[in-house]
Amino acid sequence: MWVHPIFISRGHGVGFAGPQAQRPPRGAAHYAKRKAWGLMSELHKFIFDGLPVRGMIVRLTDSWQEILKRREAAGGYPAEVMQLLGEMTAAGALMQSSISFNGALILQIFGDGPVKLAVAEVQPDLSLRATATVTGDVPEGSSLSQLVNVKNEGRCAITLDPKDKFPGQQPYQGVVPLFGDRHEKIEKLSEVLEHYMLQSEQLDTRLILAADGNVAAGLLIQRLPVKGQGNLEGQMDRQANEDQIGVNEDYQRIALLAGTLKREELLSLDVDTILRRLFWEEPVTRFEPLAPSFACSCSRKRVGNMLRGLGTAEIESIIAERGQVDVACEFCGAQYEFDPVDAAQLFTHPLQQPPPTATVQ
Ligand SMILES: [Zn+2]
After folding, report:
1. Measured between alpha carbons, how far is 65 from 245 in angstroms, rounded to an integer?
2. 130 CA to middle of ligand 1, Å?
3. Rounded CA gap, 298 and 121, in Å?
């Protein structure tokens, strides 16, 4: 089931005003200056030389602050929700980079508590956006389960939505529960996602996540898949790879080191310091850092497609009630207005228009 993270205003004004997303210019001088000030979001990949282990560290600063800013006019998020959403966004960037998928990676939590839906979406170029729908009171100090898994009915979905879909192709989606083998509630998002990576990719993964009002950050350590040999690749690969789960000593040692990183350290230290402190005895090779940025992919055309999907009757009833259809993008705050003429045009030439798509706005 695809969820439109979008709000159609019926009666009370919703919007959180804000200018449209602007990609930061990406010149070298811009980089150097912004990096010097610690203002730029960064994702660093590294490998441990000669060992079947790789790592990534992400620090979202300006991009994360932009996501929060877009929410300010609507009152912002409670600190606990901000932490969850920030961790999801950092994790989404790490997973997108880890899977290297040509399409959007969408991390969603469908909650049964005060947070009904939390979404982080990361594109292949690491442009990202995130939003959460909070419908109830969030008590101070709420844990993950108090936010989204009160009755153990919350779940986490990871969707890979290919960029160039053939007609009728559905996105790939994996769903993991927010509880463990004995139905015990999991209180760390990182653990939920570690389970997912093990299930879907057969790869041991260690994740450390943290977020506050300024930074959303994460460290990922992952065992590399076993390389295939000879003709038997597929089968042998898989078996050899599964045999390594939970037993590779190099991975275990490095994951253990990663596990000593404290939340506060992840939030406050720069990448160089973190890597030096954790892995000073390990042979680490680093790659050119990447720059995640905030961007929203909503557009009037996509909103129009979504409205068309609702059907004439629904749209007419909104027009009758409100005089026009107002749609606010939950990710970036952009407002879309469809007056009766615009709305009628949506349904004028149905044969000449693409069918309503079930994609995120
Ligand atoms: Zn938007």
Report:
1. 37
2. 10
3. 12
Neighbours of ion ligand 1 (CB under 5 A): 296, 298, 329, 331-332, 334
| Cross-strand bridge partners of residue 157 | 108, 175
Q: Which residues pair with 348 in a beta bridge?
A: none
pTM assigned to the model: 0.84
Cα of first residue to Cα of last residue in the chain, in angstroms, is: 15
Q: How far is CA 134 from CA 3, 111, 119, 145, 154, in A?
A: 15, 10, 12, 14, 14
Q: CA torsion, points 112, 118, 123, 124, in degrees to nearest 10?
A: -60
What are the tens digits of pLDDT across the range 97-133? Answer: 998 889 999 999 999 999 999 999 999 999 999 999 9
Cα-to-centroid distance, 275 and ligand 1 (Å): 35
Contact status, residue 56 vs residue 208, Cβ threshold 8 Å: no
Q: How far is CA 311 from CA 316, 317, 321, in A?
A: 9, 10, 16
